[in-house]
Amino acid sequence: MNVLLTGGLGYIGSHTAAALVAAGHTPILLDNLANADLGVHDRLAVVGGVELPFVCADVRDTDTVARTLIEHRVEAVVHFAGLKAVAESVHMPLAYFDANVGGTLSLLRAMDSAGVRQLVFSSSAAVYGTPRYLPVDEAHPTEAITPYSRTKLHIEEILADLAAAGEWRMVVLRYFNPVGAHPSGLLGERPQGTPNNLMPFVAQVAAGEHPCVEIFGDDYDTPDGTGIRDYIHVMDLAEGHLAALQRLFAAAPALETFNLGTGRGYSVREMIAAFAAASGQDIPSRVAPRRGRDVASCYADPSRAAAVLGWRAKRGLAEMCESAWRFQTRKP
Ligand code: NAD
Ligand code: WQD
Predict the structure, then answer these.
(1) Does the pTM exceed 0.85?
(2) Cα–ligand 1 centroid distance for 322 (angstroms)
(3) What is the extent of the structural domain holding 73?
């Protein structure tokens, strides 16, 4: 398969590219480098043993995207490109609607004009808002708590209307909390500035770059009082995209939605302890006030992905932490 990965140099896109190459497919990477650097392209060549086609472009440049689809005989697209910092979206809603909703509309127009109508879309567990029951299945009501999650919901609605109009085949993947890195230590998550998410911050504390982890609230209604999330190894997530692409080429409905999670939640304290064990480092922490808009617990019911895609997360917490630590210390 020739598959265009928008945002292909980003965290999840680069790991998906590695998984596609390992399975014998050809990813074509398109990225505007807003949150990635070209070194990822070089390291993907080391990991996969092949230099992948790369187009430096914005998904809102419809003509370039359409030309790329035709030139590389693309059969399907995985759309990762977009902005993802939830708190930032509250202060910059226009930038988020422009990049995420505007970017998707541009991509869809380009795909339509090139006659490529098979898409896998990166959505988020953020669309569930505050869970009304656990584990969260795909039928759980959706709710936009922030502009970021609203962009994902708008896009999901646009895709549903497109599916009803015919010709398109699409899979929406709602990711839970991706963590970890490629086993080589050459690919991983490297946020710009201070990380917003727990695990990149914990890795930097383990490396001595910050004095301690702030635990945002220890008075939640959870066993140890700290927030519980469904952390999923990024390589498991990457392989979920392979399964979704295979589904597009089977006799599938026009649009299907799947949770990609493990089905098991861990608390902030459990994550810090697991990372300390995997890295052999002391990880100091202190309790800080709750972060606005955080929910107490959120974890997936991943059974639909298992039943329909034949996909399940295989890697455990130790592997998530060990691989993230390898990437942190190797600093490629
Ligand atoms: P990332 O920032 O590492 O990757 C996104 C990539 O897209 C970056 O390389 C960036 O340079 C590129 N990009 C951004 N805007 C672009 C544009 N207009 N045109 C072309 N390229 C552009 O993020 P990620 O963690 O790999 O996330 C990928 C997707 O998955 C995003 O859509 C995100 O919303 C979604 N998602 C991420 C998480 C998470 O926790 N990482 C969870 C749920 C959903
Ligand atoms: C996890 C837990 C925090 C940092 C976000 C987005 C979601 C998705 C994944 C894109 C929570 C606690 C965190 C810290 C802490 N992204 N925490 N100290 O908020 O579950 O999900 O990323 O789609 O949409 O909202 O992930 O890693 O930020 O937080 O105590 O320094 O860690 O309160 O309980 P979150 P996270």
Answers:
(1) yes
(2) 23
(3) 2-179+230-261
